Amino acid sequence: MANTFFYMPGRIVCGPDALSELSQAARLGTRPLLVTGTTFARRSGLLSKAQEVLTAAGTEPVIFDKVQRDPPLATAEAAAEHAQKHKCDFVVGLGGGSPMDVAKGVAVLLTNPPGLTRYLGSEKLEHPAAPVVCIPTTAGTGSEVTKYSVFVDPSTATKQTVAAESTIPHLAILDPGLTVSLPPSLTAETGMDAFSHALESYLAVAANPLSDAFNLQSLEMIVRALPAVLDEPDNLDLRRQMLLASALAGMALNSTGTILNHGMAYALTVGYSVGHGKANALLLPYTIAYLAADYPLKISRVCDILGCEDVEVGLLDLNRRVGIPTSLSEAGFTEDDLPVLAESCQLNCRRVMPRIKRKMSLQDYTKILRRAF
Ligand SMILES: [Fe+2]
Questions:
Q1: If one looks up domain 181-372 in CATH, what number appears?
Q2: Per-residue pLDDT at 270
Q3: How far is the CA of 257 from the centre of ligand 1 (A)?
Q4: Which of 87, 181, 220, 240 is most buried, with most CB under 10 Å away?
Q5: Residue ranges in the chain modelled with pLDDT below 70
Q6: E strands within the chain?
C-alpha cells in the first residue's frame, strides 16, 4: 500500500477583492511574467488591475497574453523565452486552467534547461521551478493549488502532464468577483471539471483519509452550489463556494491524480476540440458507472451526496440540471467516430492506469463509449 501523504505548501487567500492580495507576490521577486489568455483578462480590465497591484507593490510586471485554450507545449516555451528576454524571476498565471498551466511551464523553464518535453511525467525537474502565483477566473481546474500543468503534445496527439511539487503556486488568489462574468456554459463546464477531479480523486488507488475529506467536501459543495449559481450568476457567496470546492479537489489531486475519466476526456479534447470541462462532464456518468463495482462503499457515499440510487442516473441528472449534453451523439459525435475515439482513449489513459483497480482493453473503452453514445 502506498504511504499516505498530503502536501500543500501554498497560501490561499479567498474573498471579495482578494485580488488586492496580489501585493503579497512582491516577496517572491522583482519582475513577474504575467501570463494570461488572449481576450478576457484584457477586456475585463482584470489584466490592468493585476498590473497596477504588482506595480504598486514595487515589481515590474511583463505581460504574455497569447495563451489559447488547451495550449501546446510550444506556448509555454514561447512564454518562457519572453520571460528570459525580460529577466523575469517569478510567474503569475491569470485566467482559466490554460494560462495557469502555461505559467507553471514557464516557471519550470526559468530555472531548468530548455525543452519542456523533458519534464513530462512525475518530478523530472533538475532544479526547483521559479515561484508561481495563480489567480483563477474559472472554478475550476484547481490548477491554482496543484503540482500539475497539462499541455497538448502535437507530436503524439495526446495531452501530457508535468507533475512537479515545486510548481505548486506559492500564492493562490480566489476572488469570487473575478468569476461572476463567466457565461453559464463555462460556469457549468468548469464546475463539472472540478466535480470530476473530486470524484476521480476519491476513487483513485492513492486516495487516503486526508484526500477523501477534501473530496467529499468538494462534491457536496458543488452539488449544492453549481446548479444554484447558474440560477444566480451574480451571487458572490455561491461563486466563492465554487472556487473553494475547486481548490479542495485540486489539493486532493496532488496526492491521487485523476483516473479513467480524465484520460478518456483528453481523447475528446485532442481529437475533437471538445472543451476540457465539457468532455469530462459528458463522460463522467459512464466511466464512473463502469468502475462502480470496484468501490461499493465509496459509490454509495457518492449516491447519498447526489441523492440517487444509481450513480449513472444521478450523474446524468446533475449534467442535465447544469445543461451538459448527456450523450456523445447529443454532443455531435457520430457512430463512425467511436473506433478512432476508443484507440485515442486507450493511448490517453496509459498514464492513469496504475491509479485504478482493473486493467482496461480496447474493448472496455469501446463498451464505455457505446454506452455514452
Ligand atoms: Fe480537469
A1: 1.20.1090.10
A2: 87
A3: 10
A4: 240
A5: 1-4
A6: 11-14, 32-37, 62-67, 90-95, 121-122, 132-136, 148-153, 158-163, 171-174
pLDDT of residue 123: 96
CB neighbourhood size of 36 (10 A): 28
Q: Quick one: pLDDT at residue 4?
A: 64
Q: Within 13 A of 368's CA, how many CA atoms are on the CB side? A: 27
Check residue 3 and give its pLDDT: 65
Distance 241 CA to ligand 1 centre (A): 18
Report how far ligand 1's centroid is from the alpha carbon of 304 (Å): 23
CA of 3 to the centre of ligand 1 (A): 25
Measure 250 CA to ligand 1 centroid, in angstroms.
Answer: 9
What separation in Å is there between the alpha carbon of 133 and the centre of ligand 1? 19
The 10 Å Cβ neighbour count of residue 300 is 12
Q: How many CA atoms lie within 13 A of 122 on its CB side?
A: 6
| 262 CA to centre of ligand 1 in angstroms | 7
- Please name which of 200, 325, 349 lies closest in space to residue 274, comparing C-alpha atoms: 325
Q: 58: CA distance to ligand 1 center in Å?
A: 35
What's the pLDDT score for residue 185?
97
Positive or negative, the CA dihedral 176, 228, 198, 347 is negative
Q: What is the pLDDT of residue 158?
A: 85
CA pair distance 31, 21, nearest whole angstrom: 17
pLDDT reported for residue 2: 54
Asked whether this chain's domains 11-178 and 181-372 adopt the same fold, the reply is no
**Separation between Cα atoms, residue 44 and residue 14, nearest integer Å:** 20
User: Is 11-178 a domain of CATH 3.40.50.1970?
Assistant: yes
Tell me, in angstroms, the distance from the centre of ligand 1 to residue 141's CA.
5
- Rg of the chain over CA atoms, in angstroms? 19
150 CA to centre of ligand 1 in angstroms: 9
CA distance 101 to 256: 19
Strand partners, 121: 162
**Tell me: the pLDDT tens digits for 356-373?**
999 999 999 999 999 999
- For the chain, the domains span 11-178, 181-372
Q: How far is the CA of 277 from the centre of ligand 1 (A)?
A: 6
